[in-house]
Structure formats: C-alpha cells, structure tokens
Write a structure and sequence with these properties.
Layout: E1 2-5, H1 11-27, H2 41-46, E2 51-56, E3 59-67, E4 78-79, E5 88-95, H3 102-113, E6 117-122, H4 126-134, E7 138-145, E8 148-156
Length: 157
C-alpha cells in the first residue's frame, strides 16, 4: 500500500467511499455521527489539499484527512490531552474494505509525519474506538460538537 495526496479528479471516488462508510456506520449502530450527507462534496473539495488516499494495486483502500494543524474543537475537552505540544490531526477516515489493515496503515503513516497526533470519534463508533486503541492512541476525554457531548478525544505521542 502507498499513501498519496488526493486531487479534485478523485472527488467522485472519494464520495463513493464516504457513501459506503455511512452505510457501514448505520449498519453498526452509528447512524448519528455522519448522518446522511457528511462529509459533503463541498467540504472535501475545500479540503482537497489535506485529503489523502491509501492505494493498493491502483485502487483506493482508504481515504482520510491529515494536517499538521490545531483543531478548534480540541481546545477544551472534558479530560486532559497527553501534552500541549504542536500536533497533527486525522479526520474522516473511511476504508473501502478491499484490503485488511488499510485504516491502520493510514494512521501509522500520519503518526510518522507528526509524532504527536490527535483524533476524535463518536461515542457510538465502536469500530473506530477499537482501531484507535489498537494503533496506540489513548483516550483523553470528551468534547462537545454540534450541541452534543458525544465526541471522544484520542491522542498518540
């Protein structure tokens, strides 16, 4: 597998991956996190320079957002981050399911870029919570987004 930056030409395929991810989330007890239309094509196009594709034999195995930047939602959590050093973030991880371990590969790649990485997931997203713990992330607390305190904050240092 290899990681490459996405481009506007990848937008259609990226949106197909997210459609499949929303279906998977609904089928696994997590219908609220992304609802019916998150992330939107407009959001992905806006963030295209921070979107990455994990490729396997010419096919997309996973998509994700990565940037070495602060996240406004992470300023105040009900808990405590492992440190207050500059960090990178990963968001919107979605696997196509064609290669086992693709999401782990992406998280390992992101961590190699920034040895201080923060992520979050929804409290109903058990598969992502298990993945984060398997990849060495530690639960740091919760925070509010969209009027709900159901977001779980994780960090790996």
């Amino acid at each position: 597998m290899e990681i490459r930056k996405s481009s506007v030409q990848d937008l259609g395929q990226i949106m197909q991956v997210y459609d499949k991810a929303r279906k998977f989330m609904r089928e696994n007890g997590n219908a609220e996190q992304w609802g019916e239309d998150y992330p939107s094509a407009e959001l992905i196009e806006h963030d295209i320079d921070k979107m990455y594709l994990c490729m396997s034999e010419g096919r997309i195995a996973c998509v994700f957002y990565y940037a070495a930047e602060e996240d406004e939602d992470y300023k105040e959590i009900n808990g405590k981050w492992l440190n207050e050093e500059p960090y990178g973030v990963v968001h919107r991880v979605a696997s196509t399911g064609i290669v086992r371990g693709a999401a782990s590969f992406c998280l390992d790649w992101a961590y190699a870029q920034t040895l201080n990485l923060r992520m979050d997931t929804y409290s109903d997203n058990i598969p992502m919570q298990k993945l984060l713990e398997k990849c060495g992330f530690q639960y740091c607390g919760s925070f509010e987004r969209l009027g709900m305190d159901k977001w779980m904050a994780y960090q790996k240092i």
